[in-house]
């Protein structure tokens, strides 16, 4: 009989998500799609997102031929005890799908600048705003030399212009 049927969910301590999270996310995981580019002239499909790197962010106008991608998979298990988990951040070439690591275990949520020249994020580990310049392939700490704390809710920085504004 159905009411006598036993249901058992097994969770291991090495799983990337605890069992209740797995059950909540199951439906969305089953329906997951992956971003790709279709070259209209050749019909070639370039896969940008993959099961290992499934978060892809395109610039607004898509004029630079790059995308920003990140994954937190290597750090998911730590989410059980710390919601501030890291992310590995990549540039993705829209023409080839090649991925280049720009920051390992980055804190915060990476974003693309409006023109697609920079990736930027707030690093809560040292309370700073950082940017990554794609042309010079360099990480820039935008707030290191400024005498203002950036962990305060009343203060923010526009990461592209290095201007401090009171909110």
Q: How many distinct helices?
A: 1
Strand arrangement across the biggest beta sheet: 3-4-5-6
Q: How confident is the prediction overall: mean pLDDT? A: 82
What string, H for helix and E for strand, traces the elements in order? HEEEEEEEEEEEE
**Can you summarize the main beta sheet?**
4 strands, antiparallel
Give the structural class.
mainly beta
Q: Give the termini distance in whole angstroms.
A: 63 Å
Shape: flat
Rounded to the nearest angstrom, the radius of gyration is 20 Å
DSSP E strands, number: 12
Residue runs with pLDDT of under 50 for 5 or more positions: 160-167
What share of residues are in beta strands?
25-35%
What level of helicity do the residues show?
under 10%
Index terms:
mainly beta, four-stranded antiparallel sheet, 12 strands, 167 residues, 1 helix, 34% strand
Would you write up a description of this structure?
This protein has 167 residues and is mainly beta. The protein has one helix at residues 19-30; strands spanning 36-38, 45-47, 55-58, 66-71, 87-93, 99-106, 111-112, 118-123, 128-133, 138-141, 155-158, 163-166. It has a four-stranded antiparallel sheet with strand order 3-4-5-6, with no helix packed on it. A hairpin with a 7-residue loop joins strand 3 (55-58) and strand 4.
Summed up, what is this model?
The chain is built from one helix and twelve strands.
List the helices and strands and how they pair.
Elements: H1 19-30, E1 36-38, E2 45-47, E3 55-58, E4 66-71, E5 87-93, E6 99-106, E7 111-112, E8 118-123, E9 128-133, E10 138-141, E11 155-158, E12 163-166
Antiparallel strand pairs: 1-2, 3-4, 4-5, 5-6, 7-8, 8-9, 9-10, 11-12
């Amino acid at each position: 009989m159905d009411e006598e049927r036993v249901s058992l969910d097994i969770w291991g301590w090495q799983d990337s998500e605890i069992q209740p999270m797995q059950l909540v996310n199951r439906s969305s995981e089953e329906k997951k799609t992956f971003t790709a580019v279709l070259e209209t002239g050749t019909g070639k499909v370039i896969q940008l997102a993959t099961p290992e790197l499934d978060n892809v962010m395109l610039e607004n106008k898509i004029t630079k031929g790059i995308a920003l991608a990140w994954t937190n998979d290597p750090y998911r298990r730590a989410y059980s005890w710390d919601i501030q988990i890291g992310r590995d951040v990549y540039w993705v070439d829209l023409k080839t799908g090649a991925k280049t690591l720009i920051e390992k275990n980055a804190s915060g949520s990476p974003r693309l600048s409006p023109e697609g020249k920079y990736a930027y994020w707030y690093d809560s580990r040292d309370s700073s705003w950082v940017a990554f310049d794609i042309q010079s392939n360099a990480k820039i700490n935008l707030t290191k030399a400024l005498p203002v704390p950036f962990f305060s809710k009343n203060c923010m920085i526009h990461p592209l212009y290095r201007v401090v504004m009171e909110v």
